[in-house]
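Hello Y.,

Per our agreement to keep a running log of every chain we model this quarter, I'm adding this entry. I've kept the format consistent with earlier entries: sequence first, then predicted structure.
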Amino acid sequence: MEKTAKKRKKWWIVLLVVILVAAAAILWATGRIPGLITFRSEGNQKEEVPIAEVLTGSIEVITEGSGSVEAASTSAVSLKYGGKFISIPVEVGDQVKKGQILAEYDLDALDALIENKEAELEDLNKSISQQSKSGSLSVSSPISGRIKKIYAEEDDVVSDIMERYGGLAEISADGKLKVEFDLPENKKTSVHLGDEVRVEVDDHTEKGTVALLDDGRISVTISDEGKYDLGESALVTSRSGEKLGSGVLASNHPYLVRFDYGIIDDVRVEENESVYSGTVLFTLRDRDYNDQYLSLLDDRQELLQDLQDLKACKKNPVVLSEHDGYVKTLVVEEGVVYEKDQKFCTVADVSELKLKVEIDELDIDGIEVGQPARIVFDAFEDESYEGTVEKISGAGNNSGGVTNYTVTISLQGNSHLKDAMSATAFIRTAGKENVLLVPIDAVESENGEKYVQIVKNGETEKRSIRVGLINNEFAEVTEGLSASEQVLLPQNGYLLPIYSSGSNNMFSSGRYRS
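Predicted structure for the entry above:
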């Protein structure tokens, strides 16, 4: 039984050798592998030397570099409200969604802060009331028109009103009100600039005029006799009664009355009242403040805002993520009191990634912004991703006599690509089709010139050539050779030519094509 098994094993070995020899013969006959040519050395010894045929094919030059990816954008989450946290349910590295709770405030600590702020405000108000103030002044209308809105009331701080509304009052400068809206598609061609229309406000009908018509947006003006307030609803119809649209009344040419400091002592006008240039609108007290008084007012305003924020925080006492991503840094702890605007954490958005790779100084000149790149991650070697060269650093890093330059490549992220993963980028810097190719090992240099050894009729001939593109395997020959000629390959190892059907698949190596 054992002898029979040995015979079968020998039989299979013989069969395998026969198959390999037959396959080699077929490849040799079809020119798919380099041949061997026999020479006689000086000692009359036979020597077999490999040769390759010059064929037409396509060549690509691929530059590669390795590095690690990082999130394209990282957003800082800062505290809108000061306070202390009773719970922080996330840690560095956690994936988070927009709107997800990152931390929960301690309500007892918030109440204590509010109590302290209110006590500070009371003390500040006392300090303000004790400051010396002098002078009295009035605010006059700089133009003639109709008062349409009064924002300031008695005892208001002028700076507060200015910050909130941009002015103490609004004056209509041209005696007109307007209503604006978008015309329906079927009405755009039937309405023209200057057309007379009807404007219905509070059961009254006014004659209006189309004053602006811009890509479907219409503005209709009516005369302002003081009967209507700003913000009242208005319906616009054509002269025949066909509805065109609706909106709210606004000043056609509004003018905001501005001032700097002081407290409103008295309001001298009413809304819809006509005024002339120079008409007194408001009288003020405490206009001329000293620097300390102004500083106290600023402190009071800031304190009022803090109180407002803290009370708003009590209604929803949490910190929310503003973006999807993962927590990259976390710089707060539970049980510690933090101030408003304190940085809480950073969230990295991995939907967009950047890969930074180092490119050798000999290859960097072929890299350009906008070039496509194929990216392979060490963790997913069977997958490839598309990227684009986004930035090329002009500052090199010299190490061991070799200078490298950082190239940044952008790519889309997905659910299993994570920050800091290692990857290699392959960037196609050049390529040509239908050119003459020889294995790079066949090309030799002498005195700055390139040449190959031509094999013809069993003899060799040294021939100068010019080369174009070169990659790790092949060289493009631009002068000196013709297709089907044979070149000598080195005897200490050589590359087999790789055949294809002529595909232009990006990032393949240089290859022959039959």
